[in-house]
Amino acid sequence: MVRNANDSMESPQEQLREYEDYIERKINKLNIYNVYWCFFELRSRSQIPTENILKNDALCKSQLIRALKFRKYSPRTVDIFLEESAKNSIPLPYVKWFYEDKRAALWLKMVLKKYNILSDLIFTESDVTIFIHNIVFNNNLFITNRILRNKDYDGDSAATVVNKKLSLETLKKAYVHSKVSSKDTKRLTNSNDKKINYTYQYMLKKYDIDNLIKNRDEKKQHQQTKEKDDEDSEKDTLKKINKNGYKQALICTDTIFFESTDAAGRLDHILASLDYWVFDTHWFATENVRIDEQKIANRGLFIKNMYEAWNAKQKRDRDKLKKKQGIDLTSDNKKNLKYLAKADGKTQREVLNDLVKSAYESTHKKARYQEIQQNPSFTNGDSFFDKIPLAQPVNLPSESNEEKPIPEDSVLNENTEELNSTYAVESVRSSPYSPSGLFDNISQTQASGLPSGDSEKEVISEDISSIKAQEEPNSPNVESLGRLSTDHSQEVASNAVTSSQNDYLMPFRPEQVVDVESKAAYNKRFIEERMAGKHR
Prior knowledge:
The chain is mainly alpha-helical. The chain is built from 25 helices and four strands. The longest helix is centred in the middle third of the chain and has 33 residues, at 293-325.
């Protein structure tokens, strides 16, 4: 099939569209780093303004595509352009040591400031990335005669790139020599924001950083030779110290400063300052770099002092918290408390409160039991009877009739009637420890003016005869009550407990032995003992 000549011909618009599609495909395959080097090549060809190449990662590809389309680059022209750009660029490995490490970038910023190069302010992470971008694409750094310079762009991209490669390689070696070991900064790199902020403030203070070892040795020697009668106190000695040579350990604080909320930026600034500690310009003049061992020793001591200061602050804070809360546990008990809280599903404060409450209740019950054992409610009959108030007679004679005698027969008859009605066997079962009836009678007798001495003995003898006469024939006597069956004894003991509680007697305890005794027998024994002089 023969194609028409008109069909083989493409219109200029279609051809231009093909060129543009080719440009888009080639540029979109590039990474951001190479895209900026394409802008560097366009600038060397004077096809864009000679001003700085601005950092704009999101739009840099579209901007480059638009610039190439505007100049109507053909596919062949695009390929040549990309080859020249790659040849006149600095490969990423030459700049990777600071291009992808903000700590190294800040160290480089400190070195450049020493030579009054690039004094841009750095306050945020974005400022650091812009600084890195300018070093690579907008500044012509080179080292001559041990001096780092920033040469103005002269249009020779090849020579500029070669000099820049050599200078950056020299700076990289210097950084590796001055960098503090990760072993010394391990406790700092694994820190939280609070520790980083404390360290940042610590390094902002001024110290004699060039003579730390010397001052430490002199202080030890002074303490060893110090006499007790030394007139100069330690405070006076500190006042006499000349602080003119004191410096901040944190470098370039006038152009580099991060807020407390940017802990990552502060950490990079701290580490970069420690790296810069031993940097020396003579490293640019020779391949055999010699490091000042005194500077390394001073830096090591400073890092140690910094850690010790943080630990001391932590201890002060813990002591304040313990003093405020009133809790000071050993390390083992802290672990045990944490285990108990986890096992019970409670907080440590709740577990402590429960333990204190339980221990208090146990100790209080034990102390109360010991108090009852040592001081019972009553130890003998007399002390118990002293606590019982004397019953007042219903019809006491008035004071005007106080001298009127009461017949002895009426007293005996009254006692006899009360014994007949009160001191039955059923009454014995219900309340063997309630002799209130008897003492009501005794109190009434005393209130009636019973005679004392021999007359009292005669009345008591008649009471005994009356009690014996009034006992019912079926009532058990003392001997029979002592031989009650076991079941009956338990019943009487149970009733005794109930009666004692109702009458406010000493609480019954299981270890006590209940003496089963009727009221009549108890009264009889009491009267006999009183006649013998046991009760007064």
